[in-house]
Design a protein that fits this description.
The protein is of the alpha/beta class. It contains 19 helices and 15 strands. It has a domain of 217 residues: Rossmann fold, CATH 3.40.50.1100. It binds pyridoxal-5'-phosphate and ligand LJ64HWYM.
């Protein structure tokens, strides 16, 4: 199994090499050369399996010879052992034909734990075997950062630096990143928004001298391993609703396009997904692009669903690669236009290819809050604002005979202010985090400046 870059100019890598590299050296993102498929019989055989067994069968073909079966199975078991629900990703029924896939039972209460807990295990195993050490730098709008810190804190072979936008994450998210005491954890509050954090991270990857000097690694969803781990819950959900003998649709609250891209991979593998609905908040560049073909960035407007306050949606590049017939030059040209001019136009053929798989919708701030209120009143379900964006858009895209699954991407207690504003209820943190507000915070303020960030990282890592 080999991985190739979406810009066509970087060498193909194994799963382990692609995982440890993060971004390709031509600036592109790694994708599998070919996507392995599962037959209807393979999918039927998932019925009744545990989440861990399903994860093994779905992911195994992508891993190649990077890990033995036994090691890979053990690492999956360790990754999910700390989840607060036996099913790992349970589903509840919101309304006839509409289900909520709860992805917030991991240690940091967001869907990011599904991938991050696993790649923490995979990194540790691979780095120990290779006798190597890496510097992980991550960009976060709140959830990736806390999940990465939880997964990598205290590991010998890793330093982890998380860039988050100062003043633009919820207090719970910030405290999850700033209160761990392990010396290898560095929370960095950047003066800017999430797109600035992500842009500086990509700049570091493209500064080869720095990249090689600190042995830079990335755990954002630019890392293929992140996407792969998220493919699994599409299978577990669809199988429990009758796949492969029944089609299922999914609505995915979307920012960086990683989670919904995982659904697209599940579909390419053979899972009978009817529709994949991209749900955005008021920062709706993806909805506008799928509607008009114009991908044009504008100012980021802070919202009640801050983790999706994103304009430069990194994984969109992966789906454009397919939509343009896997033409790396065409993708590189679009990305150059994005960098120099703030946008690009998707060709008619590529747009048609995208629309074969994706529908889209947006939720305004008022609609998001109204959905939280209505879900609580009618179903007793307390939604986080991101999940509420999904539920609102899903309701507009449901078809009578196909079950719709909306991904509930975070626990409402991560966003207590918005949830209380909408529903009058302030959701408490789970017991194990009850003292989060008493713990001491530790973070570094930094300007939105590449060389200042590189200096900060150099000074902090062991020489
Ligand atoms: C709670 C929550 N929901 C949804 C999203 C969107 O996921 P993605 O970036 O994979 O589209 C994010 C982060 O981006 C998130 O933290
Ligand atoms: N919402 C994310 C943004 C980064 O997304 P990623 O999936 O690419 O890591 C966050 O919470 O940080």
């Amino acid at each position: 199994m080999r991985y190739i870059s979406t810009r066509g100019q970087a060498p193909a890598l194994s799963f382990e090499e692609a995982m440890l590299s993060g971004l390709a050296r031509d600036g592109g993102l790694y994708v599998p050369e070919t996507v392995p498929t599962m037959s209807a019989e393979d999918i039927r055989a998932l019925h009744g399996l545990s989440y861990e067994e399903t994860a093994f069968r779905v992911m195994r073909p992508f891993v190649g010879d990077s890990f033995t079966d036994e090691t890979f199975g053990d690492l999956i078991a360790k990754a999910y052992a700390g989840f607060g629900h036996g099913a790992r990703a349970p589903m509840v029924q919101l309304a006839p034909g509409h289900f909520l896939l709860e992805l917030f039972h991991g240690p940091t209460l967001a869907f990011k734990d599904f991938a991050m807990q696993l790649i923490g295990q995979l990194f540790e195993e691979a780095l120990t075997r290779r006798g190597e050490r890496v510097t992980i730098v991550g960009a976060t709008s709140g959830d990736t950062g806390s999940a990465a810190i939880e997964a990598f804190k205290g590991l010998d072979a890793v330093d982890v630096f998380i860039l988050y936008p100062h003043g633009r994450v919820s207090e719970v998210q910030r405290r999850q990143m700033t209160t761990p005491t392990e010396a290898n954890v560095h929370a960095v509050a950047l003066d800017g928004h999430f797109d600035d954090c992500q842009a500086r991270l990509k700049d570091m990857f493209n500064d080869f001298a720095f990249r090689d000097e600190v042995r830079l690694a990335g755990v954002n969803s630019i890392n293929w391993a992140r996407v792969l781990a998220q493919v699994v819950y599409y299978f577990s959900a669809a199988v429990s609703l009758g796949a492969p003998d029944r089609k299922v649709s999914f609505t995915v609250p979307t920012g960086n396009f990683g989670d919904v891209f995982a659904g697209y991979i599940a579909k390419k593998m053979g899972l009978p997904i009817d529709r994949l609905v991209v749900a955005t908040n008021q920062n709706d560049i993806l909805h506008r692009c799928l509607t008009s073909g114009d991908y044009v960035t504008s100012e980021v407007h802070p919202s009640v669903s801050p983790s999706m306050d994103i304009q430069v949606s990194s994984n969109f590049e992966r789906v454009l690669f397919d939509a343009y017939g896997r033409d790396g030059n065409a993708v590189a040209q679009l990305m150059d236009e994005l960098k120099s001019g703030g946008g690009f136009h998707v060709s008619q053929g590529a747009l048609q290819a995208l629309r074969e798989h994706f529908e889209s919708g947006r939720a305004s701030e008022d609609e998001t809050l109204a959905t939280i209120k209505a879900a609580r009143a009618s179903m007793g379900e307390l939604l986080c604002p991101h999940s509420a964006v999904g539920v609102k858009v899903a309701d507009e895209h449901r078809a009578p005979d196909t079950p719709m699954v909306t991904l509930a991407t975070a626990h409402p207690a991560k966003f207590p202010d918005a949830v209380e504003q909408a529903s009058g209820i302030r959701p408490p943190l789970p017991e194990r985090m009850a003292d989060l507000f008493d713990r001491e915070e530790r973070m570094t303020r930094a300007p939105n400046d590449l060389s200042a960030l590189e200096t900060l990282i150099r000074e902090r890592i062991p020489q």
